[in-house]
Amino acid sequence: MKPHALRSVLALCAAFCAAAPAHAQTLTPAQLAAKAKAENVPEIPYESVPNFLKLPPNLYLGEGIGVATNSKGHVFVYTRSQETRLFEFDQTGKFVREIGQGLYGFLFAHAVRVDKDDNIWAVDEGSNMVIKFNPEGRVIMTMGRRPEAVEGLLETPPAANVPPAEPYLFNRPTDVAWDANGNIFISDGYGNSRVVKYDKNGRFITSVGTKGNGPTQLNLPHGIASDAKGNIYVADRTNRRIQVFDNDLSYKASYTNVGAPWSLCVTPGPHQYLYSSNSNPDNSNSEIGAVTGEIYKMELDGTIVGKFGKAGKQLGEFSTTHAIDCRNENELLVSEITAWRVQKIVLHPAAKAAAAK
Amino acid sequence: MKITVIIFVAAALAAAVFAQSVSEIAYDSTPNLLKLPANLYLGEAAGVATDSKGNIYVFTRTGSMLASVGGSRVFTRGGARLFEFAPNGAFLREIGQGLYGFLFAHAVRIDPQDNIWVVDEGSNMVIKFGQDGRVLMTMGRKPESVNVPAREGGGEGGGRGRGGLPGAGIPGDNFNRPTDVAWDAAGNIFIADGYGNSRVAKFDKNGAFLKSWGSKGTGPGQFDLLHAIAVDAAGNVYVGDRSNKRIQVFDNNGSFKTMYTNVGAPYAMCISKGPHQYLYTSNSNPSTSMDNGEIYKMELDGTVLGKFGHAGKLLKEFGTVHEIDCRNANEVFAGELTNWRVQKITVRP
Fold this sequence. Notes:
heterodimer, A: mainly beta, Neuraminidase, four-stranded antiparallel β-sheet, 24 strands, 9% helix, 38% strand, globular, disordered N terminus, B: mainly beta, 26 strands, 5% helix, 42% strand
């Protein structure tokens, strides 16, 4: 779109958008429910690096569930393959190694994150465990416990009848974050609806959340991130809001205009940004996919800076984004469930600024 | 809520009350004891034992128990592995890779002839290996197939396998989630059996069934989750009666002698060698908490000499200790479930 055309759309929008978005009548009720409430969000120009990850012959990613980078730019991908597996690539996307092959805690990948000391943390939704590897790839701490296979299959309790949360056990945990002191924050998860804080040695400190949609209640906390001050951002996915807590897990704020936050990340550095993905559903519902799939860039206070992307299978489109790494503010790594891939996304916010002039 | 708090406080008091007068024993833990090759990992260190050369054996729950769908039945395999390490922790070898009886590790013990015995709670088998790593004898039989889900009867010890009704103490050759093995000087075999069957079974050294005793309950000679077993030089049998929070002592033929009720829930026990034997027992923390976790050193008569350690994830802390080895009186190897680790503890009494 040429700059002058964009301006006329904006002018048109200035006339009506506040009262009734021009296209609203064309959306189905389901689409209206799924679409993010934010309007007139600037698009951030971006590109996706083609064929970023290079795998050896006969090694495949399955669902690209978790992605994270370490301080050297190495990329860790936690994937639901035939087995759940954790792979490391260098900053150019070249395969380096597998970590945790055959690990007792690897059943159904959910998230991988790298802490400030380059330890690698895997969150497994099947084994109900959070596993900390040192940079060499050896296990140095485990949290939660895999249910004993010898007890047979545990029946999934009805949603209304989830047993009380135990301090040291998880029920389908989803993500992990840390504050500057090394305290550990875990979003737990599909089964329990809470966030738990542990000290750096894994001792329980406090938790927040029960299932529901009131303040401090959660309905599928699916991602978690912390800022430099130790505030905790929780992707309250089914409630379609980001909840912000202070370091003691007291409620601070909710951001409700960026759709269903499947995944969050906070950039490092003096000016931190929050990215959040309003991912399209993993059942490939194209009706909903048409109004979802974009990723938002926000200030920590919830002000939206811009957005980019849409649902789809092509390079640069997103197929149910499940994790975002934003160690580098303008070079994101995005893992997708349904496309079985990880994309390296390069943002060009300066180009947008130039075009707008 | 109030009731919960009261129960919690009462439980905490009950757990703390016996421990106050016990002296603390100084101890160290060797950092980074076991060195594994790249991409080989311990899972839950259910079993640990040493042989006469000081080599360390670890029976671990790792990988995943796999089910193959075969017509109308489901067949299971995998989920447990046995590794051997040198005394300095260097990895030596895997024993029994792909073994039919390896499903869910519970214990490994080394007999006086350095044979390696594993107790598998999933296959309901006790398997004896020679030093060459070959199978010398098998006890019990793996169920041909396991229905999924197989949680019958409800609660801990829900029936699986061939032991009859849960807790019935059915005598005979087959096990229902066995937990541990020990021998007397004549080579008779004592098996703690276990989660399902609540009995001690005695076999001769060739594996012929001699007798068994016990059923589920709280009286003398009854058990609620017998989780560990050890035999002293005189042939007395010490049983870790875990959920009853007591150690029961029997003579060689199963006659009740005494019990020790002041050292918590005995998740793991061992008796040292030599002329003056000691009994170690671990009051391990359940995986749901970081309470307890201390290990007691006792005389065989039950006198508590001291204790060391507590629950936690750091070196010298314990994460649900599941088996201990104390071939040498002041050297305790502890296999931890929740920390996926084996620690070598040097006790400085």
